[in-house]
Amino acid sequence: MAKFFEYQGKAYLRQAGIPVPRGQVADSPTQAREAAAALEGPVVVKAQVWAGGRGKSGAVRFADTPGEAEAAARDILGMELRGLPVRQVLVEERLEIAHEYYAGVVVDTAREVRAPVVMFSTEGGMDIEAVPSERIALHKVDVLRGLRPHEAVNLVHALGVRGSALSRLSDLLVRLYAMFRAYDCRTLEINPIVLTRDGKLYAADCRMAVDDQAVFRHPELGVKLARELPGEPSEFDLIAWRFEEQDFRGTSFVMQMATPAELRKGGYVGYHGIGGGAAMLGIDALSRVGLKAANYADTSGNPTAAKVYRVAKLILSQPGIEGYFLAGFLMANQEQWHHAHALVKALREELPGRPGFPVVLLLCGNKEAESQRILREGLQGLPAAIEIYDRAHVYDAAYLAGRMAQLVQAYRTQRA
Ligand code: GDP
Ligand code: MN
Prior knowledge:
By secondary structure, this protein is an alpha+beta fold. It is built from twelve helices and 20 strands.
C-alpha cells in the first residue's frame, strides 16, 4: 500500500470538502517556530511518520508559544517511532475538544465481505481496536452505487447522534467515501474527528493508504514507489523500481534490506532469489550459517535477460558485500538461459576487480543444460571463487549456504 503522511492526507481531505485545522509542515525546529508564530495562538506539534499511537508515545505535543513549539519540534524530530525516524512535524492550530468521533473506510478482503466498509464511532481518539463493538457502526458499501446519503445517516443515527451533528457527520462520511473511491484507497481513516467547543467539526488526524495496483492511475499523488515498504524507499529501491516500471515482462522484485552502515559491519552477501518461496528458503539457509542478505531479490515469471542483468548489476553495486548468492531453489518453468546470459554479462563486468569474491549459483529448470553450459563457459577465467550448481542440488539449501559460508571465510582470510 502506498501510505501517506497525515499532512498529505489532510490536504486531500480539505479538497474533498472536509475541514481540517490550519497548519503547516516543518522539517526543522526553526521552521516549527515560524509555523507556530504564523498561526498566532496555541498549537499542537505532531510527528509525521507512518505509525499510529503517536499520542501515547509523546509524539503529539501541545505548545502555547512559538518557543515551546520549537522545543517540542526539537524533541520530536529526534525520535524514532516503530523504527521509523521522524523527519517532519505538523504544526497546527490547537482545537478545543468537546467530543471526538471516529470515521474510516477500509477494504475488507474477507471472503464473505470483499467490499469497502464504512465505519463510524462516537468513541474517537482512542485505538479503534479498543472500542467495544457495540460502539462502532459498520456499513458494507455497494461499490456500484457508492455510499448513499441515507445510508450514512443510518450509520451515524445508529449510535444515537441526533440534530445538526447527525447531518454534518453523515455529510462528512459521504465525502470521505467519495474521496476513498476517487483515489482508490485501501484505508482512509479520521481518528479523531473533533467537535470543538464552538461547535465546529474538524478532521484532526488522517491515515491514508492507496492500493499499489491503482497508483498508476493517480500521477497527481506523486507516489515514487508503489510497493509495500517498512519506511520510505531508499535510492536502491527507487533504482530497482525503475526496472519494473519500464518493462513489465516478468518480475524483478528487488529491495534493500541493509543500510550502507550495516553493510560496513560485514556478514552480508548480495542476494538473488528466483521465485518468492525459493527466495525465502535461501535467506533462511544463509541466516543459519551466520550470513545475511544485503538485499531481497526475486526474478521470476520469465523476465528478459536485460531485466535480470540490471538486477544483478544493482545487487553487485552494494559496497561491502562479501559474495553473490543465486538461490534458484526451484525447477523453474521459465527459460533459464535468460538468467544465464544476464549473469555472465553482469559478473564478467563486475568481477575482474574482485579476486576471490565468493559466487554460488544454483540454476535449474527449463533449458537447464543450455543454461549450465552458458554459465560454465561464460564465467571461465574470472578471478572470483565461482561455484555453479544444477538440479542435483535443488533441495540442498543448507549445503549451498554452507558452501557460501566457506567461500566467504576464505575471502576474508585472503583479504586480511
Ligand atoms: P495518533 O495518536 O497517532 O493517532 O495521533 P492523533 O493525531 O490522533 O492525536 C492523538 C490525540 O491527541 C487525539 O486523539 C487528541 O486527543 C489529541 N489531539 C490532537 N490534536 C489535538 C488538538 O488540536 N487539540 C487537543 N486538545 N487535542 C488534540
Ligand atoms: Mn489518531
